[in-house]
Write a structure and sequence with these properties.
This protein is mostly beta strands. The chain has 2 domains: 33 residues; 133 residues, lipopolysaccharide transport protein A fold, CATH 2.60.450. It is built from 1 helix and 9 strands; from the N terminus they run H-E-E-E-E-E-E-E-E-E.
Length: 190
Amino acid sequence: MGEMLRNVIIAVVILAVAGGLLVWYAKQAGGQPPPYHPAPVKPPSASSPVNAAGADIVQKDKAGAIVWRLKVAGSITGSEQAGAIQANDITFQTAAVKAGKAWSAKAASAYVSYGTSRITFTKGVKAQATDGTFSFTADRANYQMDTRKIIGEGNVKMTFPAGKATAERITVDTTRGEVRVHGIKGAYNF
């Protein structure tokens, strides 16, 4: 009988301690039960692409000034997760910065990649200073969002006040107002 009494006392002590802990926890939680946390839901592996026709995509700097604008007259397909947009029948324009001029470009196709900070123009690329002093055509061109340079490559044909020229590559620094030509072909009088 002594052993049974000892077991009952131990059980009562354990229940009293457990009850005391429950009362203490309830007071700590403000009398509320512990919050419910549902099991996390695994996001889909890729977001669905967005397909549309016609768009106006604007990139602004930290002060809210427009850096560039891409107007899409044709179709546009993009994925937020991929950070990329494919657009057809586009017009692109940079803002004038300090010593540089504003530039515009037209192309049948453009690919915007925020991951690489590049816009690639293809199929009938024509770029020009908006004041009309300089223009070029190329097989393809890239706009570098970070440096604000336009680089034309492949069958580059330039027109400027002193005449016309062809080259392998052209780099337009829109912030400095500089044009660099690489692999100029032919002899030209300036």
